[in-house]
Amino acid sequence: MDNFKAQSIAHIPKHMREKLNNFPAYRLLGFDTRKMGAITFENFLSFAWNTDLVFSEREKGNLGDKFVPEARKCFLFLDANGDGLLSPLDADRMGKITDLSRAEASYAPKLKKGKPYSHELSDTSKIIANAAKLFMDNKLKSINESREIVEHGGACIYKYSVPLLYLAKEQESATILHLSDIHFDGRNGKKAKKTEQKLDFLSTLRGKIDPPDIVVVTGDIITKSAEDFSERAKKALAGLFPKALRFFVFGNHDIDFGGEKKISDALCGSGYSNLTNRHMEVEVRGKPFAMTGLDDLLCGKPALPGFAPATQLIPNVLATHNLDAVDGSSPRFFDLVLTGHTHMGEKNFLLFDGYAFLKLFKIYGNINSQKDEWGVASQRTTFHITAGLGTHNTRFNTTPEGVTLITLVRG
Question: Does pTM surpass 0.70?
């Protein structure tokens, strides 16, 4: 991230740096149209155009078509924590907030239903924290309320609508199909029967949902052996919406049981992209969209790839098998993090939940304290743990297995 910030700062002329270092950050909140305690680049453009705090009137007149790219450089410079959002907290880390009363007066959301903003909250950080919490709570509520379940082939298709801050108008209603923990199993008996069920589920999925724009497989494709990835398993995934952008990362079972090469050769040969420790900028409905992948934390070697500064200002999706791989070193500009691994608490026995079991045996640390399907980690970042299409042990009193279909909406 230090190198990331250095790239954006290097593009700022010295005279502009001095101006931005001293600009009154509290004025930003007057342009916070979403009442989230921060502003997006879209809001910043309005701020830069309607005030003379970034560019003088003369500079704006001279910039012409360069106004947006120059404003983008200024935005990236001011974004001290690199989350693609600006608030007085970014400036606070540079020691530039001095007039809290004016910050108060510029921002007066209703923090709770029936309770208007109170001037007793004289600390800007408290104002922003309350606004951010309200925004995040509403975001999580909207995701959970959008839930639909379609039963199919002995499993479920979970449907959700998820807001993304930088989604382009053209990308509204784009969809992501998320699969994880398929656990194909070549052994005989009950395991073989379950594998047949999964193969049928995948081969008939095209008749149950419209073709998605993106397909993401987040690991644990096999269970105990590379041979679990049979020709039929390969064919099932190869035939899964071939016109979509398709990506995969490995899970601990894929790595631990030697399936990486066989899976990678088969899926890459079928049009999938291996996202393991890679970052790719693609187009979804004609507009930029970023996909990043991390290797599995338990059995792999997760390493974040490099990013161009402007990546902060387009939709960003991170795929990894285990949510524990996403820690404080991860960039804050990811919009959606797709994971599996826990099967939503596969062993969930009333007084002894599955997450405690996984943590006890160091299978999962739960460093992000998430036990539900969805978690909102920041104003920008949403975490998703899918139930998994297969089971590895015993599923009891927990979310039935299935896949997730995510519809993207503008946030």
Answer: yes
